[in-house]
Amino acid sequence: MTAQAIIQSLASGLLMGLLYGLIAVGLALIFGLMDVVNFAHGEFLMIAMYVSFFLFTFFAIDPLLSAPLVAAALFVLGAVVYLLVVRFAMRAKANAGMVQIFSTFGLAIVMRGLAQFFFTPDYRSIPHSWAGGKTISVAGIFLPEPQLIGALVAIAAFAGLYFFIHRTDFGRALEATREDPGAVALVGIDKNRVFALGWGLGAALVGLAGAIMAVFFYIYPDVGASFALIAYVTVALGGFGSVFGAFAGGIIVGLVEATTALVLPPSLKSVGIYAVYLLVVFIRPRGLFGQM
Amino acid sequence: MDKNFAARRRRDLIIAAVLAGLAALAPVFVRDVYVQNILILTLMYAALSQSWNILSGYCGQISLGHALYFGIGAYTTELLFTKFGVLPWFGMLAGGVIAALIAMGLGYPFFRLRGHYFVIATIVIAEIGLLLFQNWEWAGAAMGITIPVRGDSWLKFQFLRSKLPYFYFALALCCLAWFVTWWLEDSKWGFWWRAVKDNPEAAESLGVVVFNSKMGAAAVSAFLVAVGGAFYAQFLAYIDPESVMGFQFSLLMALPAVLGGIGTLWGPVLGAAILIPMTELTRSYIGGSGRGVDLIVYGALIVAISLALPQGLVSLFSRSKAKGATR
């Protein structure tokens, strides 16, 4: 194995890792806000990919152009899911953790069923998009364009999120609500509204990731499942609720996956990610950046 | 223990004996093989869910990785049977013991984790098991193992002409899992587990050996699930990693308990009796179109029950009873 090959695979691992971070950050945001793990997160990604696909098929809008539209659509979906399902799950007096896990899990199954019903189980892809299938060569390293754009979007999204949380009124309301939902009510902030907007924002972020993934990934009703587990591992690695832990977690997951693929058969590449997760939580039971 | 509790336990035992007796008579009336099949699966999932409930319900350590133990039971039995000619009865015991040992080995690091970190660790470890079996050539890799026909007898635990012996075994397993739960509920362990679930720090300070009691729950739970896996492998006569270790088994073990009432004696049985026939019927009547209507119905039911009855369907019964008791 040459140094060239190692650098090549680490570079593509890094690009994919940034995208994993973008997929996972919505999950981390929602968890940090209200201690809920959304088990339908993978299905949000799936819906985003379909939205992108149909915007391309019916209106010939390139996925890179339609990404903001997809994110907006997912914002609405996230807020609606909160208002219709999660809001009620939060009210459970008994078995609260269980109710949250299984109500969002049931929702995931419904969304997969709906996707099969309306879109059929066929695999779809977006042919001839601007970036699809192109690569850029930097110093002998080949970088696939869609992944490169995805990585840049991820960095921009994280930077935007940082600004948003620390510099805007809504960001401050978000932070305050996560610290003490009871106290914010006293200063006139509607907790439900903040939670709904938080769910919208979390879904919009995974929507952005889905729009870019639609360029280079097959689109089918179960596509979310494989990314959902990676997203949970990414969020847990970083420490649940830590938005920038998800960023670091994503990069680690991407690099570990690429490294594993170098030494083990490709079918075992996820084993490396899972092993690293176990190793990290055995040493730090609340993840790398979680509060101890 | 107060008298009400002792009386309730006696009543539970009588109800269970009556239900088991009625179930044993069911094949007299049910001759249709398709329906018999559904009954067998219902009993099996009731047993699995009851076993899952010991660790996740009573002891509060929510596992979504029990498919690992199910698969280990299935693979141990069939590898011993096909490679060494060991009778499935011994394979079943060996699988149970191996699963219990693995559960304790994993428990050692896992039980330090809390909440979602624990749940994700259980999902992840089962996925690792699945991937390893898919790549293990000697164990048939992704192609799996076809179980050769060696006879039609209880000795070989293979039945070709009739499904009834499988039905009675599944019923026995279900009764065993229920009885173990019933017995543990009133034992030192049962009280420890509930204390650990409610407040581990307080339990520890009162002298409950939290760690050991979690280990005990994990071992019992894994053993019974592995026995279920061994049964399922003989019943199907064919196994591959996805069909005995896939994530859907972890889910199908948890769902009946969640729907029926997690951490309750009757929840898993009640949940399985409703969920499994419904799953099978929707799959064969409206799922055949391949258009996902079965998934929509199934998922919507899970959402509706978990939101409307967070304590499960058994709470419908106990609520009316609790009212009567206070009056």
Describe what you observe in this structure.
The complex is a heterodimer of chains A (292) and B (327). In chain A, helix 2 (41-59) crosses helix 9 (223-238) and helix 5 packs across helix 6. Helices cover 75% and strands 3% of the residues of chain A. Chain A is built from eleven helices and two strands, in the order H-H-H-H-E-E-H-H-H-H-H-H-H. Chain A has helices at 3-34, 41-59, 63-89, 96-119, 145-167, 169-179, 181-186, 191-216, 223-238, 243-263, 269-283; strands spanning 135-138, 141-144. The longest helix of chain A is centred in the N-terminal third of the chain and has 32 residues, at 3-34. Chain A starts with a helix and ends in a 9-residue tail after the last helix. A two-stranded antiparallel ribbon of chain A has the order 1-2. Chain B is mostly helical. Chain B has helices at 3-29, 33-58, 67-84, 88-110, 115-134, 164-185, 188-198, 200-205, 210-236, 241-245, 247-260, 267-285, 293-308, 314-326; strands at residues 145-146, 238-239. In chain B, strands 1-2 form a two-stranded antiparallel ribbon. Chain B is globular, with a radius of gyration of 20 Å. Mean pLDDT of chain B is 86; it is low at 321-327.
Cα(first) to Cα(last) distance of chain A is 41 Å
Q: Beta-strand level of the residues of chain B, as a percent range?
A: under 5%
Q: Count all strands of chain B and give the number.
A: 2
Tell me the strand percentage band of chain A.
Answer: under 5%
Topology pattern of chain B, helix = H, strand = E: HHHHHEHHHHEHHHHH
Shape of chain A: globular
Oligomer: heterodimer
Structural class of chain B: mainly alpha
Q: What's the average pLDDT of chain A? A: 88
User: Count the helices of chain A. How many?
Assistant: 11
Evaluate the radius of gyration of chain B.
20 Å
SSE topology string of chain A: HHHHEEHHHHHHH
Mean pLDDT of chain B: 86
Q: Approximately how much helix is present in the residues of chain B?
A: over 70%
Largest interface comes to: A-B, 51 and 43 residues
Unreliable parts of chain B = 321-327
Mind describing the biggest β-sheet of chain B? 2 strands, antiparallel
The gyration radius over C-alpha positions of chain A equals 19 Å
Identify the strand order in the major beta sheet of chain A: 1-2
